[in-house]
Amino acid sequence: MLTLTCPYCGVSGEETEFHAGGEAHLKRFISGSTDAEFDEYMFLRENPKGVHFERWRHVYGCGKWFHAARDTNTLEVFGTYSAQVSEPPKEIKDKISAKRPGWSWRNFK
Amino acid sequence: MSKAVSALAGAKASVLVAIEERGLQGMITLRGDFASAAFKKAVKSVLGVDLPGQRAVAVAGEKAVAWMSPDELLVMVPHEEADAVVEALSGALKSEHHLAVNVSDARAVFRLSGKDALVREVIAKVAPVDMAGFGPGQIRRTRISQVAGAFWQPEAGVLDLVCFRSVAQYVFDLLKVSAMEGSEVGHLG
Amino acid sequence: MTGGFQPYDALMSLFREFAALPVAFDWAEKDSKTTRGHPRQRRGIRPDMKRYSAFAIAREALRHHTGWERAWRSPEPKKKYDAIIVGAGGHGLATAYYLGKNYGIKNVAILEKGWLGGGNTGRNTTIIRSNYLQDPSAAIYEKARSLYETMSQDLNYNVMFSPRGVMMLAQTQHEIRGYKRTAHANKLQGVATEFISPQRVKELVPIINIDGPRYPVLGALWQPRGGTARHDAVAWGYARACSAMGMDVIQQCEVTGVRTEGGKVIGVDTTKGAIDCDKLGLVVAGHSGVLAEKAGFRLPIESLALQALVSEPIKPCMNVVVMANTVHGYMSQSDKGEMVIGGGTDGFNNYTQRGSFHHIEETVRALNETFPIISRLKMLRQWGGIVDMTGDRSPLLSKTPVEGIFVNCGWGTGGFKAIPGSGWAMAELMAKGHSPLTDEFSMFRFREGRFIDESVAAGVAH
Ligand SMILES: Cc1cc2nc3c(=O)[nH]c(=O)nc-3n(C[C@H](O)[C@H](O)[C@H](O)COP(=O)(O)OP(=O)(O)OC[C@H]3O[C@@H](n4cnc5c(N)ncnc54)[C@H](O)[C@@H]3O)c2cc1C
Ligand SMILES: [Zn+2]
């Protein structure tokens, strides 16, 4: 069972209060993009065993979307952060580096 | 206008705690920018309370204001006053980006009363919330078994719970089962 | 046949347990030259493998069971193989088996990081059916189902295939339409299924509640020759047959790297050292993405935990498999009498092989509505597997961007039923570079807009 803390209302709740929204920090490639870009955006998803970044929504709570940094193998949550950013904040990255030295995810390290 | 009736016409049950559908309750969803001085002023002037802090409930007589999210409040007023309060809020917030809607008849409200530990225990069985850390002054939006709901404690030994009207019967039955005689756990004292 | 205690069923299940014992006798001729054309050799089984039979049980009973030999060898890896299969689950083993049997490629190693059949193959709820919607699916799933019919004989290993019939309940108007459409499609594909009435459902499954409360049963898609099989036995049977063909099934050998040269595979690195190969088949279900990354390409796959559970054993009460997509649960009864139950996957990517607790509650709650008799049953144990989900809920049997590397994955929540057909097709793909059964299942189909949408057929994880 996964426990997440919503950065908007401060509630620490178990996963049934939340809804998973898939891979985080996707960049949209639609009209005008190449086939390869569109393929990647539309059909390919990061699927690491380890450090992962996702979107979540506090559906049964405040209703807000937010981001979570998590280990898919241990369910450890490194931290949650605002939805209004396009990459993980430094303090989250630092926390992950302390626990998983040498991690990388897409082009984030 | 047709006569308003509540979802379960004041249904009651007396089990481990008393459960009662509270009848008509005025409720307004108010959304806006909490950081804006005009918004704070409007809440204060129309409702007589300061903007509540994160997950807090502010009470002033028959009115109460609950923090629902960083940009949403739940305003509780007597049922017959709801339209007038919406109008007053809309007036006071004319120059602000905001939303004020009377949602009274889309909701149902239940009151649980009895021994405080048991009241909280009945909720602990149906919501993924640590009720040991819960008490008067707080509001919690969460899952009530299979549906959405929110609750707060006006005082120790009393708990009000709000859900959508369409699931009122489900919630009433659920609370009755959760409060069944002989089902005490006793972990909250 | 109706429910309740059936002496005949009980006898049959006893018989099946007995027959499932690995039994052997050794009248096989030792010299393969003299057995040319022998039916067993035509089946690709090495003639010096001891055969299992009822006769052998009797003989071994007389000599205190001292004559049994190991079902497969446990060799050290060689320096090089013609083909390496990564993953000794059902799909990996079946691929190897048909490489040997159909194409004579026997210098093959199957590398398994844990124990064989310890992945999803040993964790599934064993439902076998072939009534999917799209033509490419019907082709490969029906190929698989038909191979299950003769698998015990082919492998000389009792896999307890039990074509008891599988039904998928229609509990909404949408489902009625969806399943009728599938029934029509199946008719055109030559797959024997039919849409049946609620009354017929009740006749076949007397313990079912067809009146609701929330979702009354409005009919069902019924495949009489669908059913179940013993999952471990499928893996063990293939492993034994592969080993008998001279292939190396190497357990506790994790592939940690894939070596390529000039865009072509040359070998793998493992916890038992480097091993070279000409061709490499990645057949690792939930870990496909992890291995693909080591080989330098990406797959359109996400990995999630899927769970199952079983109740305490009870007397025979249900002799078909029932799946209920709308309430989201499915159930069958094992030969041991346990009710075998499954439901949905976790909602987020993970590799926990455990799954979230609340899914058990949701699944059992859903099935309580449909089968009130289970409300007093104790659940005995629960487990999870990591399933490999694709966007269109259809598998990938495909060449990859690296020459010589092939993938067989994406079976997600429903690949047990496909094991023999998938192995058959994958072996052809690896041996010949092309197979009519795998053509449509390319990993590049998404980019090309050629989805094989089976989200309805795969509605409830099965
Ligand atoms: C709970 C549950 C219920 C299911 N119910 C059904 C059902 O009723 N009907 C149905 O048709 N399907 C069902 N399925 C799906 C079915 O089990 C799978 O699709 C199928 O078993 C996949 O077989 P496989 O051989 O591809 O994978 P697996 O059996 O998982 O085999 C893959 C193997 O690869 C190994 N491996 C991974 N990484 C490495 C590495 N780096 N090096 C070496 N080895 C490695 C693993 O240890 C594993 O043994 C269910 C699945 C689950 C989890
Ligand atoms: Zn929240």
Give the tags.
heterotrimer; B: 189 residues; alpha+beta; Gyrase A, domain 2; Alpha-Beta Plaits; 2 domains; six-stranded antiparallel β-sheet; five-stranded antiparallel β-sheet; 11 strands; C: 462 residues; alpha/beta; eight-stranded mixed β-sheet; 29% helix; globular; binds flavin-adenine dinucleotide; binds zinc ion
Q: What does this entry look like structurally?
A:
The complex is a heterotrimer of chains A (109), B (189) and C (462). Chain A is α+β, with helices and mostly antiparallel strands. Chain A has helices at 35-43, 90-99, and strands at 3-5, 12-14, 19-23, 51-57, 65-71, 77-81. Chain A is globular, with a radius of gyration of 14 Å. Chain A is built from two helices and six strands; from the N terminus they run βββαβββα. Helix content of chain A is 17%, strand content 28%. With 189 residues, chain B is an alpha+beta fold. Chain B folds into two domains: 12-19 and 106-178, Probable tRNA modification gtpase trme, domain 1 (Gyrase A, domain 2); 26-105, Heterotetrameric sarcosine oxidase (Alpha-Beta Plaits, 2-Layer Sandwich). In chain B, 22% of the residues lie in helices and 33% in strands. Chain B has four helices and eleven strands. Chain B has helices at 37-47, 82-92, 116-124, 168-178, and strands at 12-14, 18-21, 26-31, 57-60, 63-69, 72-77, 99-102, 107-113, 139-144, 147-155, 158-164. In chain B, the strands form two sheets. In chain B, strands 1-2-8-11-10-9 form a six-stranded antiparallel β-sheet, with helices on one face. A five-stranded antiparallel β-sheet of chain B has the order 4-5-6-3-7, covered by helices on one side. In chain B, strand 5 and strand 6 (72-77) form a beta hairpin. In chain B, helix 1 (37-47) runs antiparallel to helix 2 (82-92). The mean pLDDT of chain B is 96. With 462 residues, chain C is of the alpha/beta class. The two termini of chain C are 25 Å apart. In chain C, a hairpin with a 2-residue loop joins strand 10 and strand 11. In chain C, helix 4 (90-103) packs parallel to helix 9 (231-244), helix 4 packs across helix 12 and helix 5 crosses helix 12. In chain C, the strands form three sheets. In chain C, strands 1, 2, 8, 9, 10, 11, 17 and 18 form an eight-stranded mixed β-sheet that branches. Chain C has an eight-stranded mixed β-sheet with strand order 5-6-4-13-14-15-12-16. Chain C is globular, with a radius of gyration of 22 Å. Chain A binds chain C through residues 1-2, 15-16, 19-20, 35, 39, 42-45, 47-49, 52, 54, 72-75, and chain C through 287, 289-290, 298-303, 347-352, 356-358, 391, 446-447. Zinc ion (ZN) binds next to loops of chain A.
